[in-house]
Write a structure and sequence with these properties.
GO cellular component, one term: membrane
Radius of gyration: 21 Å
Largest sheet: none
Protein name: Sorbitol PTS, EIIC
Structural class: mainly alpha
Keywords: Membrane, Transmembrane, Transmembrane helix
Organism: Liquorilactobacillus satsumensis DSM 16230 = JCM 12392
Order of helices and strands: HHHHHHH
Number of strands: 0
Pfam families: EII-GUT
Number of helices: 7
Length: 182
């Protein structure tokens, strides 16, 4: 009987801990994400969908702007997860590649720009602690991590273009590479 009581108690503790975590999110990350969403939508409303679509068309013309510059600017200005939403202005064909690039960038920039992905900053701090114990400079590692991340995110986005083309051909799907400005 004691075994069953301990199991039930532990089971309830799991949900109590989940509730505390949820309340913590309600007073920390959820308001920040909500306000970033409001800000981004306000900027888009102020600038206009047509101008945002023109920016997306200009950004989608080559892989460097599509998977190197736009993800960096989006992540730096909007942070994770709001940076993902900039992909809504890209043509359908490039959305899988955009996601591949931006999702990776939100992880590889924490050492230099912790505001991009604060929920994973503890991972960077764990790595940095080991580097500090070795007597090495953590900013050197952070910059290398950022630069390697930019290159790998660019490659990941571009490779996803090829896999998207392959899957589209295999499935007989045609996706537009143009942004609809109407």
């Amino acid at each position: 009987m004691e075994y069953l009581t301990n199991f039930a108690s532990g089971f309830m503790k799991l949900f109590q801990t989940g509730g505390k975590t949820f309340i913590g999110w309600m007073s920390s990350i959820i308001p920040v994400v909500l306000l970033l969403l409001v800000l981004m939508n306000a900027i888009i409303a102020f600038v206009g969908d047509k101008k945002m679509a023109k920016l997306a068309r200009a950004s989608s013309k080559n892989p460097i702007t599509r998977y190197l510059i736009l993800p960096f600017v989006s992540a730096f200005m909007l942070g994770n997860p709001m940076a993902h939403s900039m992909g809504r202005f890209l043509p359908e064909y490039y959305k899988p590649s955009w996601y591949a690039s931006i999702a990776q960038f939100c992880h590889t920039s924490n050492g230099v720009f912790p505001h991009i992905n604060p929920s994973e900053y503890f991972i960077w701090l764990g790595i940095a602690q080991g580097i500090q114990k070795l007597g090495l400079n953590t900013m050197d590692l952070a910059i290398r991590y950022l630069l390697v991340g930019l290159i790998m995110n660019f490659i990941g986005g571009w490779i996803t273009d090829f896999t998207t083309a392959y899957v589209c051909k295999q499935q007989g799907i045609t996706l537009s590479k143009q942004v609809d400005i109407n």
